[in-house]
Design goal:
Pfam families: Methyltransf_23. With about 240 residues, this protein is α/β, with parallel strands linked by helices. It is built from eight helices and eight strands; from the N terminus they run H-H-E-H-E-H-E-H-E-H-E-H-H-E-E-E.
């Protein structure tokens, strides 16, 4: 029997419909372009991407994957949204980004195919869009080598996150398309940390991401009550 994909068809369709906007820095993906340097610097400072084998899970149009490859990493980006992957592949060809490839495969399937194969794994803004986030966390833990790094980012399921990330970002400021996020699918840091521990990953650190609507700038902070990143490591 074929194992069901851990993916929501409605979510895949949502991002496929926006695929042609991935590399437009003034489009719906403007926030991702703005926060990408902050994320990249934090990941690189902890894991040193140069000459590392890196997997970007839920890579979308390749914004983070592309920037990690430019840091000297050998990057594989995976996603189940076909149109987004085609955009990522085309961008890599047009810009000549070295050491990068894209595949349409689930993280669970790749874990069976290539266990303990990557030095660094990133999974950004994906967990809140899948039916079973813990399955993704387990697969990520299986894919990373001993002593390897795993980085997640997602949204805290809190009243503050509901007001800022959904009401504020989607309905007031129109920074994101309405319906991008569902409150019930958001994940508390304690829940993600527990999933990591159950999968054999040790929590190393967290960072919050805040947006200042006056300066229109993002910054990394210690406040994880809305957007946050979590760094974990698979110690041998």
């Amino acid at each position: 029997m074929t194992e069901a994909l851990n993916a929501d068809p409605a979510e895949l369709a949502k991002f496929s419909d926006l695929a042609h906007h991935w590399w437009d820095p003034e489009s719906e993906f403007k926030p991702l372009h703005q926060i990408n340097p902050l994320r990249l610097d934090w990941i690189h400072a902890l894991a040193d991407l140069n000459q590392k084998r890196v997997l970007d899970v839920g890579c979308g149009g390749g914004i983070l994957a592309d920037s990690m490859a430019r840091k000297g990493a050998d990057v594989t980006g995976i996603d189940l949204a076909s149109k987004s992957l085609r955009v990522a592949q085309l961008h890599a060809l047009e810009t000549g980004t070295p050491n990068i490839q894209y595949r349409e495969v689930s993280v669970e399937a790749l874990a069976q195919e290539q266990p303990a194969s990557f030095d660094v794994l990133t999974c950004m803004e994906m967990l809140e869009h899948v039916p079973d986030p813990s399955s993704v966390v387990r697969a990520c833990a299986e894919l990373v080598k001993p002593d390897g790094w795993v980085f997640f980012s997602t949204l805290h399921r809190s009243a503050k996150a509901f007001m800022l990330a959904i009401v504020g970002a989607e309905y007031v400021l129109n920074m994101l398309p309405r319906g991008t996020h569902e409150y019930a699918k958001m994940i508390r840091p304690s829940e993600l940390a527990a999933s990591c521990r159950e999968a054999g990953l040790d929590l190393v650190g967290t960072k919050g991401m805040e947006y200042n609507p006056i300066t229109k700038r993002y910054a990394l902070t210690t406040d994880t009550s809305v957007n946050y990143m979590l760094a974990a490591r698979k110690f041998s």
